[in-house]
From TrEMBL:
Residues 198-586 form the AMP-dependent synthetase/ligase domain. It catalyses: (E)-4-coumarate + ATP + CoA = (E)-4-coumaroyl-CoA + AMP + diphosphate. Belongs to the ATP-dependent AMP-binding enzyme family. Pfam families: ACAS_N (PF16177), AMP-binding (PF00501). This is Synthetase.
Length: 621
């Protein structure tokens, strides 16, 4: 039996500690991800086979439908307890449990990264004890926990006495999840008007950095609200109302979050499609949701390449019309940096230039008050059958959950400048470019271009230009920049950075360490987030300042999330084990259905293990 060498605690400046633990494995493991369970009072720490948001219910490592696999491909590790004391504010690792994912195991030292005393002292959650107290209440009293958070937002009408009504057990009838039903609110109002009323009208809401260096812009919260209201008034003028679908096929211009917020303001349901998907993929989504309007632009530059989006829209609508889903109105934004209108194919009366009509409408538009359970958006994921799944998120619970996860997972401060490199065509862009940050009154950077254009230093040039403090990106980008060499990073200051984040897939320990040591100068905690399009927000993630971090580990459940590991018969497993990752009970950000196919919703997510939400992933403890 091989054993790993002793664990080495890495302590940033102003933190000193030593610890040792030996780990032994019972079989060869071709992939690794170490996770620790700091105390018996803490919830279980889980290894996840897929760090989302990626299309759900795929086999571990993305090879088909996970619901079809018969054996969870995991190996076990045993542990020897550590008795070392961590510095004050960092907690004690008393029962470290470990499982491994990613890189080949070899006898090597592994690091626990302890937050500095300065960071923990000022953090929103500054100790394991504070986390455990908050987590315990969120599980034992979810109605009280989430009601207190809900009270921080504006509600035209307060919800009824039943905060949560749910049935996730298919044996007991139709699956139903409802949070704050009966409460009337508006997520756009809470993201913009509420922050302006709090005195933040002159605060920058959006910075925009274009594809080419030197292309930039910004909008304050007051200016953003005016832009949103103008588009909302235009949409109402052309007949879009509460419950109507609007497809948005835009690149990362400021007009993309503007369009999302404008739909939300009038109660319309937006469906953002990644501006890069083919005409066939776009037409499938159009056919399914039957929008009244499509919002797009003529073209976009990504790096040195021009993508003709208007042409893709035209081709997609040819196909949708064949399937009896014509769309009579196309609002087209003229993206002059990519293509001028004179060279854009356009049909008079059908294709309307955004710049010709939207600025003519009033800058004030009353918010449409909607029930907490009214739909907010549809976001399509790839289905195992070939038909995209329309994940349906509603308003109230999603609003609370994205705002709260953003706040705590990134230790958000009002002075932060936040940059997430994700596109709004994905759930990350919905939850952590648009809604979560703006609901907290944050300043958000929107980047149109490619992160390695014109060279591999572009990200850090942008970080210095805007004094970015929170940087959230994907491991794929981290590894790509790592291959390009440290010199592209170290030529820039990056002194503004204080929190880093990882999303979209597992981050291997060597990439984690490079991200931490080189990009973050060994001082920025990394929020390694696991979640899904379907969950709406983070499910398992480190909370900066609360715990030591393990390279490549997603660590602990977020507040209100009760993960369990079950065997093939649905029996909950205890202690060290491998099995299928499920979630007990619902949470506010959970999706409510698959659009037009509730039966598929139940079959995919709730029938595999009755009484639980099945994530489609395997895990080990």
């Amino acid at each position: 039996m091989d054993s790993l060498s002793s664990t080495r605690i890495y302590t940033p400046p102003m933190a000193t500690a030593t610890a040792s633990a030996k780990w032994s494995r019972t079989a060869a493991v071709p992939w690794r991800r170490l996770l620790f369970s700091p105390s018996t009072a803490a919830p279980p720490l889980l290894l996840l086979g897929r760090t989302c948001p990626a299309p759900s219910c795929r086999r571990l490592f993305g090879m088909g439908s996970s619901s079809r696999r018969s054996v969870a491909p995991f190996d076990h590790l045993s542990h020897v307890e550590s008795t070392s004391q961590l510095p004050s504010g960092a907690g004690r690792i008393s029962r470290p449990n470990a499982v491994v994912l990613g890189e080949a195991i070899a006898a090597e030292e592994v690091d626990l990264v302890v937050p500095s005393h300065d960071f923990s002292r000022d953090a929103l959650v500054s100790s394991p004890e504070q986390y455990q107290q908050m987590y315990k209440r969120s599980i034992e009293d979810p109605a009280g926990f989430w009601s207190e958070i809900a009270s921080q937002f504006y509600w035209k009408e307060r919800w009824g006495p039943e905060v949560c009504s749910e049935n996730i057990d298919v044996r007991k009838g139709t699956v139903k999840i409802e949070w704050f039903k009966g409460g009337d609110t508006n997520i756009c109002y809470n993201a913009l008007d509420r922050n302006i009323e709090a005195g933040n009208g002159d605060k920058v809401a959006l910075y925009w950095e274009g594809n080419e260096p030197g292309q930039d812009g910004q909008l304050t919260y007051a200016q953003l609200l005016e832009k949103v209201c103008q588009l909302a008034n235009y949409l109402k003028h052309v007949g879009v109302g509460k419950g109507d679908a609007v497809v948005i096929y835009l690149p990362m211009l400021m007009e993309l979050p503007i369009a999302m917020l404008a739909c939300a303001r009038i109660g319309a349901v937006h469906s953002v499609v990644f501006a890069g998907f083919s005409a066939e993929s776009l037409s499938q989504r159009i056919i399914d949701c039957k929008p009244k309007v499509i919002i797009s632009c003529n073209a976009v530059r990504r790096g040195a390449k021009t993508i003709h989006l208007k042409e893709i829209v035209d081709n997609a609508l040819v196909e949708s019309t064949k399937n009896r889903v014509p769309v009579d109105l196309r609002l087209i934004y003229e993206n002059k940096s990519a293509m001028d209108r004179e060279t854009t194919n356009r049909q008079e009366g059908r294709d309307i230039w955004w710049q010709d009509v939207v600025p003519q409408f009033p800058t004030k538009c009353p918010a449409e008050w909607v029930d907490a359970e009214d739909p907010l958006f549809l976001l399509y994921t790839s289905g195992s059958t070939g038909k995209p799944k329309g994940v349906l998120h509603t308003t109230g619970g999603y609003m609370l959950y994205t705002a709260t996860t953003f706040k705590y997972a990134f230790d958000y401060k009002p002075s932060d400048v936040y940059w997430c490199t994700a596109d709004c065509g994905w759930i990350t862009g919905h939850s952590y470019v648009t809604y979560g940050p703006l609901l907290n009154g944050a300043t958000v950077l929107v980047f149109e271009g490619a992160p390695s254009y014109p060279d591999a230093g572009r990200c850090w040039d942008i970080v210095d230009k805007y004094k970015v403090t929170i940087f959230y990106t994907a491991p794929t980008l981290v590894r790509a920049l790592m291959r390009d060499g440290d010199e592209y990073v170290t030529r820039y200051s990056r002194k503004s950075l204080r929190v880093l984040g990882s999303v979209g897939e597992p981050i291997n320990p060597s990439a984690w360490r490079w991200f931490y040591n080189v990009v973050g100068d060994s001082r920025c905690p990394i929020s390694d987030t696991w979640w899904q399009t379907e969950t709406g927000g983070f499910m398992i993630t480190p909370i900066p300042g609360a715990w030591p971090q393990k390279p490549g580990s997603a660590t602990f459940p977020f507040f209100g999330i009760e993960p369990v590991i079950v065997d093939e018969k649905g029996n909950e497993l205890e202690g060290e084990c491998s099995g299928y990752l499920c979630i007990k009970k619902s949470w506010p950000g959970a999706f409510r259905s698959l659009y037009g196919d509730h039966e598929r919703y139940e079959t995919t997510y709730f029938k595999p293990f009755a009484g639980y939400y099945f994530t489609g992933d395997g895990c080990s403890r």
